[in-house]
């Protein structure tokens, strides 16, 4: 170790015994009580016992040396790499940095009277605005403060102990009993695209009257009944989500009915998705490995599924939602069946969630006498709607089949509606911009069969031009065909195909 | 002593791996590194946790080889496993105490978990993960990696992108270190070869079936009549592959080879249809041999090796049609193949053993600070 320390830590609140830095990866550092005592080329200011993350001082130092910086600030999560920034490029919320997060070149600090005086006196915050423009400032994303450690799991503790987790106990008993010739529909049931799954259950009931079916409703989730049937049913069918902690038994077959996964992720997903191990993604990866079958609506959906999740097992082509929707669209008196005015066009406003939906009051005020609107959200959250506009959550295939045009913020339902080759108007540019920046499998601007509008006024203009039978919406007719290919053509027998594939595999 | 004659603070390097007897993946890398460090004057001990199959004769006498166990762990937990583990940790402790503390490099998480039960005072620890972060997530290794390597002096991912993702996941000590290319072929492959080669295990994650489907598309379109496809490898999918290629023209299923360079000499294009990869050695060997690659865009490592498409064509993962398009595009364009082959050989020089060892020595200096 060199006799000159790399970094001097100046204690702003000294203590008799310092415990903050003994665990640091960087060993060549000194801890001193005042700035005058600092011998290192780099200095930090911290109270004794500050809970520094183990590697942070070395990370700050390596960034400082590699960039020849004057100041390096840790824990700035913006760009996920060490980044050179100017003082005026910090957002307002990060202009005051905790002094503990900053590594400063000592010689530079001495030359900066204003900054120096403040910091050396032991200020708790480092004010970015006090940095001169010519300062070479780096930020690094690594955490400065150590995260509390999770208590290590006791390997001898029984997993899913019956005394801690009642449903698990049901599963543990059930899994030692023989499998039953039963289909378990383990479906979240709180998403719009799930609304066609009961059709699948009905079709299968007709196909195989001898096989028992169990439907897990939200009320039954995580109950003894749920655990019991997970342990005993031979066939498990889901929309997307299985309980992560339940392993698959030998002889069990897991099928994903496809109403959601490829379709939903087509819009939401992007090629980088698989590289982001966020908490949301991890369970998805662990689930995909257990799937035996997936129903995908189109070759495009299959490609997205395989690409985004590395799914390797069998894919059956078909779409339950699409089948139900196309069947409904062949009905002549559909609007009457839905108790709506058959003389006025119907516009479905489908949004990813209520939070992303615009206020539709103005739309209703302008077109209320000529057009009927209904609202729907992917997650079945409640939209803010004027009284005259209803929000629907059931019979969605029928409502989509009855609709003449869709207004959406890139809802998954757009991929279902696309099969009907009817116009789609996309609004909510912020969301799209976010998605576009990171890249997508599907480009809303070049592949969607309709205009992408920036705001409510533009939306009104687009709806108006559609009503007049000319203008922007009508111009997208040629795209509808190619978009339908991406969405997948309904063949009307998805349930049968999925069942045949399940029986064949099992 | 370091290569340039400067004093190296620690001359003792202990390389840990799950085993040192297999001939693939991480084992191959640690053996190459062990020999490389030894050639630069380090006192190297290569330690495998448990024996696998027959013992590999380590031809290089420049480093010591140790195995912590004489028999493999039983599959089920119980007193026998516990006793073996205690014995393994004790033996590792003995190995560590046999000389001055230096640097421990753990090539695999499981091996590191053994080391963490030892007294590592004064040792510098470096952890590695030999695949992409998505593979870590896919194989459910991420939580173990975060746990085992969080306190290591450095954690090494294969690429900058992977290191970045590991940092995002909470590893503040992540940085990138590529795997080295042990040999450098002096002669380049025959540029007139009309053979597309697949080199790898025949297993789900390598997706050889996607390649077969792509070949079916190519043949169905009546393209590449003068090209043939050699699928070289074995694995759990070999029966399916054999059945799938039965009715396809100009495609052969061949047994694995011990010398990939010899095979690559007569290869026009290397096809890599994998779903999950790290920094695939087959791609490195192909590029070093002057063979352009058509690979699925399945990891940051593949992207980096192909220089984002400058030394090969990147296609959508799991997309047979796109793979077929990529193969046709490259096979039908002699100029593009030659251009990519030349660029690939230049680009891959950065992965030669000497260059990678230089990076390791810089890392050793960093962790000693």
From TrEMBL, chain A:
Any one GO molecular function term: CDP-glycerol glycerophosphotransferase activity
Primary site of residence: membrane
Membrane topology value: Peripheral membrane protein
Subcellular location field: Cell membrane
Annotated keywords: Cell membrane, Membrane, Teichoic acid biosynthesis, Transferase
Keyword Cell membrane listed: yes
InterPro entries referenced in this protein's UniProt entry, alphabetically: Glycerophosphate_synth (IPR007554), TagF_C (IPR043148), TagF_N (IPR043149), Teichoic_Acid_Biosynth (IPR051612)
Keyword Cell membrane: yes
GO cellular component term, pick one: plasma membrane
GO biological process: teichoic acid biosynthetic process
Similarity comment text for this entry: Belongs to the CDP-glycerol glycerophosphotransferase family.
Protein name from the UniProt record: Unannotated protein
Provenance organism: freshwater metagenome
UniProtKB/TrEMBL annotation, chain B:
Name of one Pfam family that matches: Glyco_trans_1_4
SUPFAM superfamilies, per database record: UDP-Glycosyltransferase/glycogen phosphorylase
Domain Glycosyltransferase subfamily 4-like N-terminal stretches: 24-173
Classification via Gene3D superfamilies: Glycogen Phosphorylase B
PANTHER family: GLYCOSYLTRANSFERASE
Protein's UniProt name: Unannotated protein
